[in-house]
Amino acid sequence: MSAGAKKRIMREYGECMADTPPGMKINFDERNMTKWEVLLDGPDQSPYAGGHFKLEINFPNEYPFKPPVVSFKTKIYHPNVSNDDKGSMCLGLLRADEWKPPNKVVAVLRLIQTLMIEPNPDDAIEPSIANEYKENRKEFEKNVKDWVKRYAK
Amino acid sequence: MASTGQQPSTAPSAGRREMMYCHECHDEWYRDEHGIICPECDSEFTEIIEDGNDPRDNAMHDMGHDSDSDESIPSLEEAPPNSHPLHNHNPWADDDPEDSDISQMRRPGAQEINQIRFEPVGPGRFHVSATIHRTISPAALGQNGNGPNTVGGFTSFLTNILQGARPAGQPQNPAGEGQANAGPRPSQDGQPHVSRFPYTASARLRPRDSNNPEPRLEPVDDLHNVISGLFAAFGEPPGGRPGGPDHNNDFDGMPMNPLLGFFAAMSGGQHGDFVYSQEALDRIISQLMEQTATSNAPGPASQEAIDALPKRKVTEEMLGAEGRAECSICMDEVNIGEEVTVLPCKHWFHHPCVSAWLNEHDTCPHCRKGITKHDENAGNTAAGGTASSSTSAADPVANMPGAFGVTGEGTPSNPYIVPGTVPPSVATDPNTNTAQSQEGATESSSGGGITERLRRGWSSGPRG
């Protein structure tokens, strides 16, 4: 990883500390600054409210020319998060062909919060959940709360 | 004609009176009453009626059965053995021998096809799978040398179908297959042999798209695939392998004739560069898309284009209203007087920062506007500055890799005629940015140089 990338990550961390989005806590390890651990509270206006989700943000060596990789370490019932042990999330500006260097981690974190409030079923990684979100919102929210109770407390 | 050799059981008893028969008038009488001369017609052509030799046989129908109910007259049904060539032939006494043959034939090879499954695997696609079980008991094979002829019959039926697909020189005799099929196996272990044939095929049902060329249609089902699989189930591959029902003939394990092998390989869908199913095509497409994850984004910008980007010292005006700005790539603050690279879209960055990005993507990191337009202009200026004979500097095709950009009054017979002098119109070509032309005149473009050399070579060639 280039010195420029490290410098940028340090700068971004400083920015995040100065202006941390609400309901978010960032654990930063200077010895391994390419891996951020984020503790995220389920947004109040979402069915994820009350849950605490652990995320990992990994910065590639080519950062900021390649997007960071976001993964949920806490299981979450969400159309845009893969329902496996990776819990990967890949959409919007996180996509390799959508990413551009001026994007910042703060923007990524805000995107995640937004997606928890309003999932994007048209760009889903879990089609069955997306379908349920679109066609049976009640059942979707019930499942979300069920999973929050089971995994995210 | 009188026969005296009699079986003991049918010898006339002592008390029995001999009957006489006249061949002339068919009369009958007792010998002890009238002698051996016919009392009616005095004929001497008479005969003693004996058990095994009844002269009335021939005249039976004429005479009818007379009232003589003498039990000594043998009934036809109780005819003595050996006196009749067909004595054992009694179609009604026993089961029809052919019936028994058939029942024997049925016994050795019991086949059943079960587990036929249709499972839809996608829109318009389904799989058919079936399992055929065939049990052959060794005892049946031993007793019936000709083996399960029912199978042989079916085998030969299939063989007839297959003959077209068979390479010349292979035995085409169905009977031969029947033999090989049914021959007793050396490894008789007393267990019934079960050959199992898992048959899987898939087909698709989708409407044709008449507006677009379709990829070569996969066969709805490979007839040869099915048939050779069936052969495997029946213990005999079409190639005539001396195997048998005791081999568990998996389809892929059997030697096939080349055509069958070809079809089998195709049905796998991963054979070389061609595919025969939508599924396989989708797999390849998604694989390609994964390999080039950024395929939607433009490719890298050329080094010349990057080098040609104008550099400028940051002015107060560029900092904007806040009075401070940063390079959005490295996020370092940029101060007045620092040199930055300005893209055609007016966004500016540190030169090392933006060139690192442009080496991967020909877009502005901010607004994604490409710098290719600038690239074209740079090419134009280079060509305009160094290539005196260029006639196509403004032609975008000329700037594409591999394009020679030769235009001229060529004809199909002599396409290489290129104007040797600059037409005056080039200098005032509206597409040429004159301001940049002067700027780029000092830069050399390798592309233009090569094109130039090629042109010179051609123009001196055909024209002599």
Automatic annotation (TrEMBL), chain A:
This protein's name: E2 ubiquitin-conjugating enzyme
Domain of life: Eukaryota
Nucleotide-binding among keywords: yes
UniProt-listed PROSITE patterns: UBC_2
Organism: Lentithecium fluviatile CBS 122367
InterPro entries reported for this sequence: Ub_conjugating_enzyme (IPR050113), UBC (IPR000608), UBQ-conjugating_enzyme/RWD (IPR016135)
Domain UBC core: 4-153
One term of GO molecular function: ubiquitin conjugating enzyme activity
EC number: 2.3.2.23
Annotated coiled-coil segments of the chain: none
Keywords: ATP-binding, Nucleotide-binding, Transferase, Ubl conjugation pathway
Entries under Pfam families matching the protein: UQ_con
SUPFAM superfamilies: UBC-like
Automatic annotation (TrEMBL), chain B:
Catalytic activity: S-ubiquitinyl-[E2 ubiquitin-conjugating enzyme]-L-cysteine + [acceptor protein]-L-lysine = [E2 ubiquitin-conjugating enzyme]-L-cysteine + N(6)-ubiquitinyl-[acceptor protein]-L-lysine
Any GO MF annotation of the entry: zinc ion binding
EC number in record: 2.3.2.27
Comp. bias regions, Low complexity: 80-91, 378-394
UniProt keyword annotation of Lyase present: no
Highest rank taxon of the organism: Eukaryota
GO terms under biological process: protein ubiquitination; ubiquitin-dependent protein catabolic process
Bias type Basic and acidic residues, positions: 53-67, 206-220
Region feature Disordered, mapped onto this chain: 49-104, 165-220, 373-464
GO annotations of cellular component type: nucleus
One Pfam family hit: zf-RING_2
InterPro entries in alphabetical order: RING_finger_E3_ligase, Znf_RING, Znf_RING/FYVE/PHD
Ranges for domain RING-type: 327-368
Keywords of the record: Metal-binding, Transferase, Ubl conjugation pathway, Zinc, Zinc-finger
Entry-linked PANTHER family: RING ZINC FINGER-CONTAINING PROTEIN (PTHR45931:SF3), SI:CH211-59O9.10 (PTHR45931)
Record-given protein name: RING-type E3 ubiquitin transferase
Species per Swiss-Prot/TrEMBL record: Lentithecium fluviatile CBS 122367
